[in-house]
Design goal:
By secondary structure, the protein is mainly β. It has 2 domains: about 1-105 and about 250-265, Diaminopimelate Epimerase, Chain A, domain 1 (Roll), CATH 3.10.310.10; about 120-240, Diaminopimelate Epimerase, Chain A, domain 1, CATH 3.10.310.10. About 15% of the residues lie in helices and about 45% in strands. The protein is built from 4 helices and 17 strands. The protein has a 17-stranded mixed sheet that branches. The radius of gyration is 18 Å and the shape is globular. The mean pLDDT is about 95.
């Protein structure tokens, strides 16, 4: 049996292991994160105490590690507070470096990190059409497309070929569709690599989208951001001017035990249209 916590932030949900005896195997992470056949999650992280810091190892639902997941980091901080590892402020050590976190309350956490660079404008041909967007790294790579009709954004048809496009190198990219109905408001949908589908939120995608909006003169900070999950995340510039903060929903929702049955992960049928080789 494996003890776990279920946490949720802005629409992203995660499994969390607090100081496990050993790191989970890739195949177990993939199985546990499978929706419908196991507990289900967008990803999993492992937390360990390291003096005044908390170390975080993050894995997407495909079982592979990623340097940064900001909603996951906000949830990791909330879990550290819940476990009594810190009071209201803690530094989370991620694969992309240390991220200071502050507990607003039991449902909300704010994190800070260096301000993103200016997105590089790129025109890429995919799914038979040429699209122009901004490419920027916020711990992990993001390609941001401005899309006025967000409800009709082609996440199923356009995002997958963009995610693996050669223009973004072997690692590929996350793909975000964003619009700015007002200068201080953004609405965004995200297709996340490692999940290989649309998620209800993406914290690094929110910052990437904000950076794209600022670069194109369509937005300015502070920014209220509506995610697909229905939550509002706030992006602000810190007083120093060289850092941004991301604040909003981050909750510990359950604690339990994973049994052996949670690791069963049958292959999808050959006729499943979602299979990459189908």
């Amino acid at each position: 049996m494996t003890d776990f916590f279920k946490v949720s932030g802005g629409g992203n949900d995660f499994l969390a292991l607090a100081e496990p005896a050993e790191a989970p195997a890739t195949e177990d992470i993939r199985a546990w994160c499978g929706r419908g056949v196991s507990l289900g999650a967008d990803g999993l992280f492992v937390l360990r105490r390291a003096g005044p810091r908390v170390e975080m190892d993050y894995f997407n639902s495909d079982g592979l590690p990623a340097d940064l997941c900001l909603n996951g980091t906000r949830c990791a901080a909330q879990l550290a507070f819940h476990l009594g590892w810190a009071d209201n402020t803690v530094e989370i050590q991620t694969g992309a470096g240390p991220v200071p976190a502050h507990r607003i309350d039991e449902r909300n956490v704010r994190v800070e990190l260096p301000a993103p660079g200016t997105p590089r404008q790129m025109t890429v041909e995919a799914a038979g059409t040429a699209v122009t967007g901004g490419f920027v790294t916020v711990g992990v790579p993001h390609f941001v497309l401005l899309w006025p009709e967000l409800e009709r954004a082609p996440l199923a048809g356009l995002a997958p070929p963009l995610r693996r496009h050669a223009a973004f190198g072997p690692a590929g990219t996350n793909v975000n569709f964003a619009r700015f109905p007002e200068r201080h408001r953004m609405e965004i949908r995200s297709y996340e690599r490692g999940v290989e589908g649309e998620t209800l939120a993406c914290g690094t995608g929110v910052l990437a989208g904000a950076a794209a909006g600022l670069a194109l003169g369509q937005a300015e900070l502070p920014l209220q951001v509506l995610t697909r999950g229905g939550f509002i995340l706030a992006v602000e510039e810190t007083p120093q001017g060289d850092r941004w903060s991301l604040a909003g929903d981050a909750r510990v929702v359950a604690r339990g035990e994973l049994f052996a049955g949670a690791s069963l992960a049958p292959a999808a049928p050959d006729w499943d249209p979602a299979r990459e080789d189908g």
